[in-house]
Design brief:
single chain, mainly alpha, about 60% helix
Amino acid sequence: MSKSTLVGAAMIAMAAVAVPVLAWSQSPAPPPPPPGAAGPGGPDHGPEHGPMRPGWGRWARNVSPQQACVDRIARRAGFVASIGFKLNLTTAQKPLWDKVVEATQTAEDAQRKLCSSLPASAEDRGKQTVLDRMSHREQMLQAQLQGLQQTEPAVLALYQSLTPDQKAILDHPFRRG
């Protein structure tokens, strides 16, 4: 097994479970636009303004940097959950998967704490300096690296228990067809 395969598997596994999916799903939906509001092609739509649609991450003007950060973690957790489903784990493999998930929760908690340090309102987004954003990104990368290092033993144990077909799913999660 190559080191890049192991690192890839660890990255996928690390992005799992401890994500605040409940907080994400409980966030209030943005209010509908008032009747007669400008739509696509209007004054608030274009490359300089970007579309104003929920779910467009940090580029949507009504999403705070903190919420965008949490949403990224939630999307990764969903991706990892889908990989776990695709693997169709056996009874013997499920405890190994649970160890991967448990190890991942610690890493996700650390990243979630970093998200909470970001501005909580969309209006405060412009108050961040480039140095603030660089510092946050550096802290997030350090937390992700630490998470990879912590989950590696659990991912290795799981990977060694997988069948060749399951390894193919984990090695190439984006393969279609």
